[in-house]
Every structure is written in C-alpha cells, then in structure tokens.
Design a protein that fits this description.
The protein has 331 residues and is mainly α. α1 crosses α4, α8 packs across α10 and α12 runs antiparallel to α13.
C-alpha cells in the first residue's frame, strides 16, 4: 500500500468526519432545552410592557442572530469553525471569545488527564501482562478482581474517599486547589505544589480506569497464547520472558492501541467529576459551568474540541497499525 496515498485518504476521511460532527454539534444545541437570554434578563424582564413582550430579550436575540433562519445560522457556524472562530460567550463571560476562555482550561486538563491517562496505561500494561501470562492463577484472580472493583466504583465516591482519608483524617495532601496562589510562588515551589496537588486526582483516575487497559491486554494475551507460533516458541526452548516479549506482546498489543487511542482522544474533554470534586479549573469543570449558565456557544466549542480529539486519536491509531501489523500494510 502506498503510504502517502493512505495518509491522504485518511486525512480526507478525518475532514469529512469533522464536518459531520460539526453539523451534528450545531443541530444538537438548536434543539436543547433552555433559553440563554433568560439567564441575563432581570426578573420580570425589567419592563412593564403591557403586551407581555420583552424588548431587552428581543434585542439580545437579534444581537446573537437567534432570529435568523436555521440554514443561515448553520452556514455561519461552519464558516466560523473552519476559520478558527469558535464563537463568543453569551452568558458565562459575556462578550469574551470562546477560545480565550477555553485555552487556559485546556492546558490544565491536558496536564491532569494526560498524565493520568499515561500513568493508567503504563500500570494497566504491567498488570495485564502479569494477569494474562498467569491466567487462572492467584495473581490473575487478584488483579482481575481488584481492577474490576475499582472500575465499578463511581469516580466521585473514590475522590471523596481519598480526600477524607488522605486530606482530612491524615492530612497528607491538600483538600482544595488554589490556582491563584501560584502567582505568589517561585517557579520551583509552584511546580512542586502543582505535582503535590495532582497526586489524588491522578490516583482517582487510575483506580477507576486501570481495568480498561489491564483487562484488554489480559484478554488479548489469553487469545494469543494458545496459537501455534507460541507453541513453536516454547518448543524452540525460549524462556518465558522471551516468549512474552518477542511473540506474545507484539500480537496482543493491537487491541490495546485502539483502547489507548480512545482514552487519549478524550484527554481534551477533561474528567468532569474529578475536576469538580478537586476544584480543578480544567475543561471538565468548564463544561459543567457552561451547562448551568446555558452558554451554548461555549458548550458547542467544548464538545467540538472533545470529538475532534477522538477522531484525530483514532486516525493516529490507524496509522500506527500500519507499522505494528504487517497484514495492514499488505492489505
């Protein structure tokens, strides 16, 4: 397969997918319940108009082009999106560009969820290797049950449990995150304090998500180990470590690539519950704040960024498959 042609075709697919996602994203917020104009209006609309109409609301609707036909708003929305204009906040921070609001929150989320995802995947691979290679043994049972137990617990409950046990009872870690304090710290102190605050949120993410990676690799190894080439490897006298590294893992890692792509794709969307519980000013908390304030342009931009992250991550996973699986290159 021509690699350049494959990349070009994949790029076209990504652009088409983003177009349909942007279209669905626009239509979704046209049918959602709630009227953002009422969030800004005073009680009673601040008028005694006997006709029952609200001049201020009519003015807001005209300024935000909510009185335009649907197709006009749709074309305007697509033109703005593909030109990099994500819109203007109408209630959360009235008149402020959405990109300006999202940028600092996105950087916080990329650090938090990016580090948490990388740590979760690393630990999941280790546990999955042990569990899959020792399937049916006590180590496999303990790892499977413990990871599934963590996966079944709600993230808000795990967050509160860690805060109560390690921040309130023992007082090892801080309870809340004061981002404003970093302006008064030197660089080294700020970095160390940031890392110290990350421990509990990252631990919560690992506890509730590590089963995804460990069980994916375990099940994949379970399917690979009975194959003929593994029997041949044992017959050749290879050690267990050599069998695992040279023959089992290269074939068992393919489903893990897909699982990793999905998780890394959702890095930009943040972890809403974890960010709210730990008062982390990330994209997840911003999503909740935009929802409660009916800021549709801000919500639309957040969802668009999150879905684009998933599409791009899956496209990268498809490209990686070409290097990891010779059968894909020959197809």
């Amino acid at each position: 397969m021509n690699f350049r042609r494959y990349l070009l075709r994949k790029a076209v697919y990504v652009i088409i997918t983003i177009f349909f996602i942007a279209s669905l994203n626009f239509l979704l917020f046209q049918v959602i319940a709630g009227d953002p104009t009422y969030v800004l209006l005073p009680r009673g609309c601040g008028t005694s108009n006997v006709t029952g109409e609200c001049p201020l609301r009519a003015q807001l609707i005209h300024e935000w082009a909510l009185d335009q036909p649907l197709i006009v708003r749709f074309v305007t929305y697509l033109r703005n999106v593909f030109s990099g204009n994500l819109g203007t906040s109408i209630t959360y921070q009235t008149g402020v560009p959405v990109a300006t609001i999202i940028a600092p929150r996105l950087s916080t989320t990329l650090i938090l969820v990016g580090v948490a995802t990388a740590a979760t995947m690393w630990l999941g691979i280790i546990l999955g290797r042990i569990s899959g290679w020792r399937r049916g043994r006590p180590a496999d049972v303990i790892i499977t049950l413990s990871t599934l137990f963590g996966y079944s617990m709600p993230s808000f409950w795990v967050s509160l449990l860690l805060i109560f046990s390690l921040s309130v009872s023992v007082r090892i870690f801080p309870v809340y995150w004061d981002f404003g304090a970093y302006a008064r710290m030197d660089l080294l102190s700020a970095v160390l304090d940031y890392i110290w605050h990350l421990i509990l949120p990252v631990a919560t993410f690992i506890i509730t998500n590590v089963a995804w990676f460990s069980l994916t690799l375990r099940n994949s190894l379970t399917d690979v180990l009975p194959e003929d080439y593994m029997i041949t490897a044992r017959a050749k006298g290879l050690s267990q470590g050599q069998q695992l590294r040279w023959h089992a893992l290269p074939n068992a890692r393919l489903p893990l690539v897909t699982a990793s792509a999905l998780y890394f794709g959702w890095v930009v969307s943040g972890a809403i519950v974890i960010e709210i519980v730990f008062t982390i000013q990330g994209l997840g908390q911003l999503t909740w704040e935009a929802t409660t304030s009916f800021d549709f342009p801000l919500l639309s931009a957040i969802f668009l960024i999150a879905t684009i992250g998933v599409v791009v991550a899956n496209a990268v996973a498809d490209v990686l498959y070409m290097f990891l699986d010779p059968r894909v290159r020959e197809a």
